[in-house]
Fold this sequence. Notes:
It is a single chain. The protein has 3 domains: 30-86, no CATH class; 101-170, no CATH class; 183-277, Alpha Horseshoe (Serine Threonine Protein Phosphatase 5, Tetratricopeptide repeat), CATH 1.25.40.10. The longest helix is centred in the middle third of the chain and has 28 residues, at 154-181. It is rod-shaped and about 100 Å long. The protein starts with a helix and ends with a helix. 82% of the residues lie in helices and 0% in strands. With 277 residues, it is mainly α. It has helices at residues 2-25, 29-46, 49-66, 70-86, 89-102, 109-123, 132-147, 154-181, 185-198, 205-221, 225-245, 252-276. Helix 9 packs antiparallel against helix 10 (205-221). Residues 36-221 form the Outer membrane lipoprotein BamD-like domain. It holds the Pfam family YfiO.
Amino acid sequence: MRQLIYILFAFVLLTSCSEYQKVLKQKDIKPKFDLANRFYEEGLKENKNRKLTRAIKLYEQILPTLQGKPQAEIIQFNTANAYYTVGDYLLSGYKFERFTKAYPTSQKAEEAVFKSAESYYHESPRYSLDQIDTKKAINKLQLYINEYPDGQYFDEANEKLQELRFKLEKKYYEIAKQYHHTYRYKAAISDFNNYLVKYPGSAFKEQTYFYRFESAYLLAINSFINLMKDRLETALSYFEDYKERYPEGEFLDQAQDYANDINLRIKKMETNNTEQQ
Length: 277
C-alpha cells in the first residue's frame, strides 16, 4: 500500500510538472492565467511553496499583456500575496505597495496596506542592527492605522507598531549606555538627556536617570581641577533628579554613595579655597 501511494504521488507530481512546463511555453494567455490561479489557490490551501512560486512565475509572465484589464488586479494582488506567503517579505512589501497605489479602491486594498506594513515588520532586524526597515514598518503600520481606524487588522497593527517603537527605544537607550560603558561620558550624558526628551514614558527611564548621573559623576572626578567643581555640582543635580523620581529606586544605594562622595569633594575643595585666601 505504501509503495502504491509513492507511485501515485510521483505520477501526480510528474503530471503537474508536465502540465506546468507545457502551459509555460504556450503563447495563449488564458491557460496560463487559469493554471496560475489554480496553483495559487492550491498553494494557499495546502501550504505548498512550490505551487505558489509556479503561480508567481506564470502571473509575472502574463501581467505585461494584461495591464489595464480586470485580470491585472487579481494578478498583482495574488503575486504579492504569494511572495508574502512563501516568506519573501522584501518583494511582498514592494508588490503590495504597488498594488495599493494602482488599486486604491479595491476590495483588497485594506489587506494589501496591512500586509505591506507587515512585510516590512518581518524584515525588521534585532535592535542592535540598522533600523531602516523598522522605521519603514512603523510608517507603514501607522499609515494603516490612520486609514483604517475600524479595520480588520487594527489591533494587530497597533500591537506590532508598539513592538517596533520599543525596539527603536531600546536601541537609542543601548547606544547611550554603550557610551557610558566605554568611558565617553560627555556623549553618554548628551544621549541620555535626548533620550529622556524623546521617550518620556520609557521602560528604561530609571536606568537612564541613574546612568546619566553616574556618567556625570565619573566625568567630574576624572576632570582637571579647574573643571571639577562645576561638574560635581552638575552631577549632584542629576542625583537629585534621580532621587526625587525614584525614592526607593533600584540604584538608590549606589547613587547615594556617589552623592556622598561628591559632597565630600566639594566641601574639601571649598575648604582648600578658604585656606588659600
